[in-house]
Amino acid sequence: MTSAAAAPAPATVLVFLDPAFENGRVADASLPQLMATDQGATRGDGVFESLLAVGGQPRKLQAHLNRLAGSARLMELDIPAEDVWRRAIGTAISEYRSRHLPAGAETGAEADELVVKLLVTRGVEGAAATTCWVQASAPGPSGRRQRETGIDVLLLDRGYDSEVGERAPWLLLGAKTLSYAVNMAALRYAHKQGADDVIFTSADGMVLEGPTSTVLLAHLETTDDGAGGVRTVRRLITPQQDSGILPGTSQGALFTAAKAAGWELGYGPLEPKDLLDADAVWLISSIRLLAPVNHIDGQEIGTPELRKQLTAELNALYATIG
Predict the structure, then answer these.
(1) CA-CA-CA-CA torsion for 180, 185, 186, 190, nearest 10 degrees?
(2) How far is CA 60 from CA 32, 114, 188, 254, 318, in A?
């Protein structure tokens, strides 16, 4: 007896930013849409952003639009105005939900998560216009699983020192570019070694970032409360943002929420030993959200109970972010 074929994955929705279409031009993702001579395909010459929409609402949209504009400036790309992007994003989300969200589904349910990508290339070789589009698709299953079960991580040398960003701005370390071949190679290497992800370090021994994420660590410290008792200080730390890393929108939003909740904040510099000595470490990104790190190079970080407790606290704070 032949088993039933698996149901096809929901199709990706594409919406191109086209001056002839005020709210964006919906394109058929099953048909070719990008010219073979587009420099995004031939050279990885472009920038992008990835964000999560929940219940039809994009999260941290302004922060992502700000970073997209900053990346475009660094690469000298002329991109459409924010309102054009917002309308195209709205079209992509509405189109996807109308096609794939079951009638009567609970708005905001976890099953109603959607990955929205904003993409810009330098356009077809010889042309003067950029190619810009919004892509909406369902998230993969690994992200949610890693949020819940945690990840094992390898430390890998990125091959340059922590000051190279200032010394060599043409390396575009502060831009989120389409040139992700090295990042993907690092992840493939980690998977072959039995790990889930990577934390890059600099040639001078500083902690940088993950291939698709920002590094966070936490310390709990017990101090005198000045009244004969004790209090627990929660400190959340991320690497220095001037060390050649991409500023994380999720990290920035979580820091704002954590500060309001009484956490102390810090910005490196961090060395690998700081990660190994932490009470908890996470890789945070807009799609996967907070992924607790169970082991780094085989060494357990903190304890399962403390990782679970602190992850729950930060997830509660992150849930307040718009």
Answers:
(1) 140
(2) 31, 14, 29, 11, 11
Distance CA 108, CA 92 (A): 17
CB 161 within 8 A of CB 77: no
Identify whether 272 is preceded by a cis peptide bond (ω within 30 of 0): no
The top-level CATH class assigned to 144-318 is: alpha beta
Pairing of β 151-157 and β 197-201: parallel
The answer for residues whose C-beta is within 8 angstroms of residue 41's C-beta and 6 or more apart is 34, 35, 121
Predicted TM-score (pTM) of the model is 0.89
Contact 273, 252 (CB under 8 A): no
Domain boundaries, given as residue ranges, for the chain:
13-139, 144-318
Instruction: For residue 257, give the H/E element and its range.
Output: helix 249-260
- The reply to whether CATH 3.30.470.10 applies to domain 13-139 is yes
Residues pairing with 232 in the sheet? 222
Those residues of the chain that have pLDDT short of 50 are 1-9, 104, 106-109
